[in-house]
Design a protein that fits this description.
single chain; about 160 residues; alpha+beta; PH-domain like; 7-stranded antiparallel beta sheet; about 25% helix; about 40% strand; globular; KLTH0F17930p
Length: about 160
């Protein structure tokens, strides 16, 4: 992960796939999509030793046939950047009605937008509920930080 950052909670969601997104300025009408990944979504809640505010990262893992992790087996597909507040969350995950646009982290500090589809209706609703809870949490923190002048400095 990152030095000084601990994973304090994970929530798994299955039946997810990532697809390419053709930028609208390059699209000539309908463009075929390619499924790049199918597997598990893991939303990790992170805590930093230097910050009291929870951070989040979405990690995508391959799913083996048995559903069990075998020791030493590579399961990692990709991840988002660490989301440290409302601005990061809004930049990283965008709700597009039936699917999500996810900004994936690449090498050399580059990112690529992919379409996230969650196939199971219950899993999709659970993922939406978790994003709603995270957004509410960050908005409350934003309000507290905005009021920090009245109540002293916000520790975070």
């Amino acid at each position: 992960m990152c030095p000084g950052v601990l994973v304090c909670r994970k929530q798994l969601f299955g039946t997810a796939s990532l697809h390419n997104i053709v930028p609208s300025e390059l699209s000539h009408g309908w463009e075929p999509q390619v499924e790049l990944f199918e597997g598990l979504i893991c939303v990790c809640e992170l805590m930093s030793k230097n910050d009291d505010i929870p951070w989040y990262r979405i990690v995508f893992e391959w799913q083996d046939g048995g559903g069990e992790k075998r020791q030493g087996q590579v399961k990692f597909f990709g991840q988002t950047a660490i989301m440290k507040g409302t601005i990061d969350l809004n930049k990283t995950v965008k709700n597009r009605e039936e699917w999500f646009e996810i900004l994936m982290e690449c090498s050399d500090q580059r990112s690529v937008a992919l379409e996230l589809r969650i196939k199971d209706i219950r899993e999709d609703q659970n993922f939406r509920d978790l994003l709603f809870r995270i957004r509410e949490e960050y908005e409350m923190i934003d309000e507290m930080m905005g009021e920090s002048d009245d109540f002293g400095d916000f520790i975070g």
